[in-house]
Amino acid sequence: MGRKKRAKTCDTLSHVKEDRISQLPEHLISEILFHLPTKEAVSTSVLSSKWRNTWRSVPALDLYSAKFSNFDAFLSFVERFLDSNREESTAHSSGQLRKFWSNFHDLDGRFKDFPTRWVDALTRRRIQQIDLTFFIFYPAHKVPALNIYTCKTLVHLRLRGAKLANAESVSLPCLKIIYLEYVKYPNESTLEKLISESPVLEDLTLVSLSTANATGVQVCSKTLKRIRIHKFQVVIDAPLLECIRTEIESGKDFEIINVGSFAKLDIDVALGNATYNISIVPDILTDICRWVRDLVLSSNVFWKDILLYSNSGPVLHFRDLSRLDAKFSKSDLEMLPTILESCPRLEYFRLELVKDKSKRRERKKDPKVMFATVPQCLETSLKFVELKRLIPGYEGEIKLVRYLLKNSKILEKLRLDVYYTQKKKCDFLKELVSSPRCSTACEVLVL
């Protein structure tokens, strides 16, 4: 009797689980599978009879060619998917393919068999997102030249290791995002057309592009809001631009003709490269003075060069700068008031403290920190301060906190992200409580 009862219970539970799956609306099942890699979507076909062929109607393909037994098997699967997806598309998707993502790692070097007609098929299927990655070390002649210049529905184009065909004309009325990395292009005209003739382009990434006799590319766009550039020379004319992100290795990758008057500039120095060309500093500082309201300097090595330039020339004044996100080493902390003095309208300041790089087993005493002056921004504009990665046992950081609390007249919030042991944190909090505050409205958060 008990055995029958348990069997009945198991059958009931199984039936309930099956009903929950089978009762899901078809468009909801398709949407769930849309966010999975195609291999995982295919594996759901064993869940129930209703799911057996559902993956075929999902408006997305997400595949890595190296996961197949050979390249021909990969090509065959894609061909069959495009055909079956068109034929078995649901009323919800209406035959539209929203995403096509593929990573081509062709071990046989047979890219000549890559069916470029896929691009035409994707265009007919009103594709929204194309994301193609080719193994970047393949010679250019083994990579097919892609012609992705005409599509009424394409919103997001991401190419890595690809090669572009020559563009006679461009018609991409919905394209908002272009991401090109290690891409080979035939000439400057092709790339400039792709950018300038995309009428709603908002986000552009150009990393390590190459062509014969490259001289740089004009980035002209009336709609562009964000650009990231690395190892590629551009001249920027984008009146609505809000953010420039760049990484310095040897020189400056960009020249600004026209950008939004309150743009954000995010600069980093390439990891392990502390000997970039210092002559670019004046040019970058001029850009900051003219165009930048929000500045992020992700490398602490840049500050010393700014200070050296300031000492050898006129005092810097970033009059429009209202947000500063910076990284300082312990040895550079004493120059902080000088930097803040250059920002008379600063409202938000985020500082990350990092340890000085030193040779293995080399121990140095922490430099003594003295804050002798009070910058104008502390008295008139600074409202929010965030200090990140405070270093346990470093005397300079509590001096910095006291300095900010004592001299910031309109400070509204001070946020401290500490990486302390419980005992060190208790000692730090005691010091913090005893510190005088100039702003009675200041809220202090310790995380």
UniProtKB/TrEMBL annotation:
A Pfam family matched in the record: FBD
Lineage top rank: taxon: Eukaryota
SUPFAM superfamilies noted in UniProt: F-box domain, RNI-like
InterPro entries attached to this UniProt entry: F-box-like_dom_sf (IPR036047), F-box_AtFBL13-like (IPR053781), F-box_dom (IPR001810), FBD (IPR006566), FBL13/AtMIF1-like (IPR050232), LRR_dom_sf (IPR032675), LRR_FXL15/At3g58940/PEG3-like (IPR055411)
Ranges for domain F-box: 18-71
CDD domains the UniProt entry points to: F-box_AtFBL13-like (cd22160)
Name under which the protein is recorded: F-box domain-containing protein
Upper taxonomic lineage: Eukaryota, Viridiplantae, Streptophyta, Embryophyta, Tracheophyta
